[in-house]
Every structure is written in structure tokens, then in C-alpha cells.
Amino acid sequence: MPIKEKFFHIMTDNAMVGVYIIDKKLMWRYVNDALAAMLGYTPEEMLGMVGLDSVIHPDEIPQMVRNSQQRLSGEVPSAHYETRALHKSGHVVNIEIFANLINYKGQRALAGTVIDITARIAAEKQLHEQRQELEMLNRTLEQRVAEALAVSREKDQVVMQQSRFVAMGEMVAGIAHQWRQPLNMLGMSVQALQLAHTKGKLTDEIMERHSLKSLEVLKSMSHTIDDFRNFFRPENDPQCFRLDDVVERVVSFFNSNANGIAITTDVRSQSIVCGHMNELSQVVLCILNNARDALLERHVAGPIILVTVIRDNNMNLIKVSDNAGGIPEQVIGRIFDPFFSTKDALNGTGLGLYMVKSIVEKSMKGTVTVKNTATGAEFSILLPLH
Ligand SMILES: Nc1ncnc2c1ncn2[C@@H]1O[C@H](COP(=O)(O)OP(=O)(O)OP(=O)(O)O)[C@@H](O)[C@H]1O
Ligand SMILES: [Mg+2]
Q1: Is 176 helix (H, G, I), strand (E, B) or coil?
Q2: Does residue 322 form part of some domain?
Q3: 343: which residues sit within 8 A by CB, 6+ positions away?
Q4: Nearest CA, atom 31, ligand 1
Q5: Cβ-contact 303, 269 below 8 angstroms
Q6: What pLDDT score was predicted for residue 198?
Q7: What's the 182 CA to ligand 2 centre distance in angstroms?
Q8: pLDDT by residue (tens digit) across 283-333?
Q9: Residues 56-75: pLDDT tens digits?
Q10: 380 and 242, same domain (yes or no)
Q11: Probe ligand 1: pick from 283, 335, 336, max atoms within 8 Å of CB?
Q12: Quick one: pLDDT at residue 152?
């Protein structure tokens, strides 16, 4: 064997990639071990084959023949392409071919190398499928998020609407409470006038005294309406206000209906915060009302509510604590949920703390948390410094 041919054989017989030579009739002239093994044959078995039919996928044969003819005719001397071969056992082997026109024993022939790319193609296919799946998930995710957002927005609106009713209900209940005594006084005054008149004892002095007193009472009733209206009036533009003013305002408002519960305030910081004063007032009032409800419901002897205002780590901290025994551990994680209440339908809507959280977080960019102390519940509202 000439040196050149010997060298060729050493190189190709031991090559890791498939190597072949086919003649112009597309008959195998040389097949190395690697190529034969790739397709499940021995080189001898392949050399005995007539044409490419049994090792190339039927759908690829026309293209393969066309390619080979182009190269054999010299039209396209070399080519690099991917195609599908058939393994002896019948399964498809994806291959990549680099083929050249050569002169083999004085005849035009094709020599080429073959790489098995089945694993790569399978990985690419899998990647493609996964990408498509991911894209589809992304698309539907966006849609699902949009749908969920729309539902939650709608729910939020309903809840907000209802909490406005709650605030209105609280306003009416507060006014009713405040008016009970002056209404009694007015009633008694009218009765006294009637009596004096019936007895013929209605003097100018009596008339004057009762009129003045009644007008005074009416004025204070009218004040009560203004107070409540101011307290619950929605404000449009955010404003900056003093935190101690809010606490003082809420505490005096609360004291008018405190049922004998003492509030202690400990205001150690006179910070300014920005937002809606009425909203923050309602937040604090709501927490105070809950404390009062718990203290009354549990008949706590010596009920105390403590409101502290301090500056904590560059934040304003309003702390409201009570001695009503705290919130049961099994419900403490749900008290800020809308409609969560341990009270009966008449006494609680379960929207109070939901409103608190939503005002503090959305409107004031703060946080509100709760924990149980040794004696009761402690709510902490952290608000950013102005
Ligand atoms: N200081 C507290 N001590 C004990 N439990 C409390 C306290 N504050 C709140 N809770 C619990 O949290 C629940 C939820 O309070 P939230 O203010 O949201 O609703 P509610 O007071 O039940 O009804 P409403 O909407 O009328 O205020 C209460 O029902 C109560 O069980
Ligand atoms: Mg409440």
C-alpha cells in the first residue's frame, strides 16, 4: 500500500468521526468504523449495500442525491449540511456532513466526514419546546396577572366603598351618642315650659332662661355635627401636619365616647408627617375602638389604653397598647384581612383594620404591625419622617 494511502487509513480507521468515500454511482467505496458503528453496521456490511437507501431517511434521499450530483458535477465542490440517517435498528440518527469532491482512483468521487448530532438536535428541540412553553406561560401569566389585578381592584373598590359606609355608620353612631344628653335636656326644657304655661306661671324670666339654655344646647349639638363631619371628611390634597395634634384630636374625640376607659398619652416627639390628617385620625381611632371593644367585652378591671408617639430609627412611631389580654395567636395573623372579625355582625364588619393597613401602607407609605405584650395587644404604626 502506498505511504499516502497507508497514512489515510491510519487516520480514518481510527478517527472519532465517521469518514466515507462514495463514487459517482453513489456506492460506498470506503466507510470507517466510526461511521459504521454510528449506524449500527460493520464497515463490510455497509460496503456491500447498494446505494444509500438503507442508511438515509427516505424523506432526505432526493435532497441528498441532488447535493451529491451537484458536487460530482463540480457545480458545488464542497458542502456542509445536516440530514437524517437511519440506524440499522430503525431509529433516526441526526448527522452533520462535511463533504468534498475528490479524485478517487482516477474517478470523481465524494469524500466526507460525518458527526452524530442526535443528542444536540434533541437538546435543541427540547430547548425550543421549553422556550415556547415558557413564552406561552409568560403570555398567559401576563393575562392572568392582569385578570387577578382587575378582580382585586374591583374587590378593593367594593371594600373601600363598604369601609366608607362603616366610617359613615361610626359618624352617625357617634353623633347619636353625643346627642342623647342634649336631646334629653331640650325635651325637659320644652316640658318645663309647657308645665309653666299650663299652670299660668310662664314668666318672661322663665321663658328667657329656657330659651337661652336651649339655644346653647342647640349650638353645642351643631358643633358636634361639625366635629364629626370634619373628622370623617375625605380630604383631597395631602398636607403636612403635626403628629401630636392628630393624637390629641383623636384622644379627645375618643374620650367623648370612651365608656370609662382611661387613655394615657405619652408624646415624646413633635414630628411633622404628610398625608391626610383625617385618614390618619381614623386609623388611630379605629385601633382605639378595637382596644375599647376588647376591654369592655372582657370586663377588664382597671382598663388602660396607652398611646405613645416617639421617633424610632428615623421613623415616626405611634404605638397603641392596651391591657385587654391580647389577640389569640390563632387569629393574630388574619386581623388585617378584609371582613375578618371575631365580633357578631352587629358589632363588627371586620373592615376596621383592613382600612388601617390600606391607609397606612398605600396612602402614607408606612407600615402597621401588631404583637401581644404581657398584658394585651400592641399596635405599631411606623411613618416616614417628613
Ligand atoms: N386590641 C385588640 N385586642 C384584642 N383583639 C383585637 C384588638 N384589636 C383587634 N382585635 C381583633 O381583630 C379583629 C379585627 O378587627 P377589625 O377592626 O378589623 O374588625 P372589627 O373590630 O371586628 O370590626 P369593625 O370593622 O367594625 O372594626 C377583631 O374582631 C378582634 O378580634
Ligand atoms: Mg374594629
Answers
A1: helix
A2: yes
A3: 293, 350
A4: 342
A5: no
A6: 94
A7: 28
A8: 999 999 999 999 999 999 999 999 999 998 889 999 999 999 999 999 999
A9: 999 999 988 888 888 888 88
A10: yes
A11: 335
A12: 87
